[in-house]
TrEMBL record:
Belongs to the ROK (NagC/XylR) family. InterPro entries: ATPase_NBD, ROK, ROK_cs, WH-like_DNA-bd_sf, WH_DNA-bd_sf. This is ROK family protein.
Length: 417
């Protein structure tokens, strides 16, 4: 959606003042959103505006209930300076995480506080766009129950797997459309009547780590998302890199096994066929049906057909040797793949996230052993491997961040242009 539409629509911010005054306020609010809290001196330096102008803006925004004092900053020998930040609940965004077999939703405010509980609904991601109506209905129900002031809802942020071109607002793997001229982003915008940010789930995970997680303050890091598939988020020079079409990081579909199993992408022997949640479930099912000695064999026939990574991890935690072996194989294959990434990108940090990463040592130990085998010593010694600390819903933070970034950037582009 064009930024002009955003500016001309009803805005939470006051538009009755001069355009220049409004521009200063938007710049100030965007800066406070990004840094969380800042002193008058820090604001003056960051925005290149005078102290009187800054104090005037802060006074007006405080009166209008957009900002508040956030304690005191560090003293340089005199009185500690007041810190200012955006007031919680000033703005909201709806975050939707569409996975292969479920949908998660939450409304977050501008300080990334969950304004509603995270709602998870069983839902199968379809190839065509029939599923859009269902997702929209779930979202409407959540919005109606939230009780938030909808005039302060600035947009919708949607993350999903597949080849997502966030520049064009299209997914070439799921929710595809044969009708030309209407992208997936536009289809969602018509439903919500709000600006929509569409992004790949791994990019959202990487943004969450960069702005709120273990990659905060890092310049070069890799974020591996190991769920049903395998995805890579690339952080270089302090930014999440998208690639020419937004398709960077399709690590799961690099050739890995000669004459290997057929991958759903159409190629044989992709890394994802031996190092993903789908691969783990397939190997577990085959082993159980062939008579492997495992507590997994106690599962019912229906449970075996629908086995997931969490079940194998639980079995490993109970000491099941077959489950431990399966996870070890996944870790070894991932470690070999990561070795290539380390030598290509020379990262200072590699963050593991997703359902399979929750296996912890059952994955990381064989992974590290494979890295030691396949990666050059001088390069691997610079890269630390850690597990994400944001939790299983961490990428929703990345979706919220993308939505607020888009909102402020769109306003500024219009006002400055």
């Amino acid at each position: 959606m064009k930024s002009k539409t955003i500016v001309e629509s009803e805005q939470p911010l006051l538009l009755s003042e001069s355009r220049k005054q409004y521009l200063f306020k938007v710049r100030l609010l965007k800066y406070l959103y990004e840094v969380d809290a800042a002193s008058v001196g820090e604001i003056c330096k960051a925005l290149s505006i005078s102290t009187p102008t800054t104090l005037k803006l802060l006074g007006e925004l405080s009166k209008e209930q957009w900002i508040e004092k956030r304690g005191f900053g560090k003293s340089m020998g005199g009185r500690k300076p007041d810190l200012f930040g955006l007031k919680a609940g000033s703005l909201y965004t709806l975050c939707i995480d569409i996975e292969l077999f479920s949908v998660k939703m939450v409304i977050m405010d501008n300080v990334h506080k969950e304004s509603t509980p995270i709602v998870t609904t069983v839902h199968t991601l379809s190839k065509d766009r029939q599923g859009i109506d269902q997702v929209h209905q779930m979202a409407v129900s959540l919005l109606d129950q939230s009780g938030i002031d909808k005039s302060r809802l600035i947009g919708v942020s949607i993350g999903m797997p597949g080849l997502v071109d966030s520049f064009q607002g299209e997914n070439y793997s799921y929710l595809t459309n044969d009708i030309p001229g209407k992208t997936l982003q536009h289809a969602f915008e018509e439903k919500f009547n709000l600006p929509v940010v569409l992004q790949n789930d791994v990019k959202g995970t990487a943004l969450a780590e960069l702005r709120h997680g273990l990659a905060l303050g890092k310049r070069n890091a890799l974020v591996l998302l190991m769920d049903w598939g395998v995805g890579l988020g690339i952080i270089m020079d302090g930014k999440v890199r998208q690639g020419a079409s937004g398709f960077s990081g399709e690590m799961g579909h690099i050739p890995f096994i000669d004459n290997g199993d057929l991958c759903y992408c159409g190629k044989h022997g992709c890394l994802e066929t031996v190092a993903s949640g789908l691969a783990l479930a397939k190997m577990a099912k085959e082993g159980i049906l062939s008579g492997k000695n495992s507590i997994l064999a106690e599962l019912s026939e229906k449970e075996i057909d629908n086995i997931e990574a969490e079940v194998v991890i639980k079995a490993a935690n109970r000491g099941d040797q077959y489950a431990i072996k399966l996870l070890s194989n996944i870790g070894t294959n991932m470690g070999k793949g990561i070795s290539t990434l380390i030598q290509l990108f020379n990262p200072e940090l590699i963050i593991l996230g997703g359902k399979i990463a929750e296996a912890r040592q059952y994955i990381t130990l064989p992974m590290q052993q494979a890295i030691n085998t396949y990666c050059m010593t001088q390069i691997r010694e610079k890269a630390s491997i850690v597990s994400s600390e944001l939790g299983k819903n961490g990428r929703l933070l990345g979706y919220a961040t993308a939505s607020f970034d888009h909102y402020f950037d769109s306003l500024l582009r219009e006002l400055e242009g």
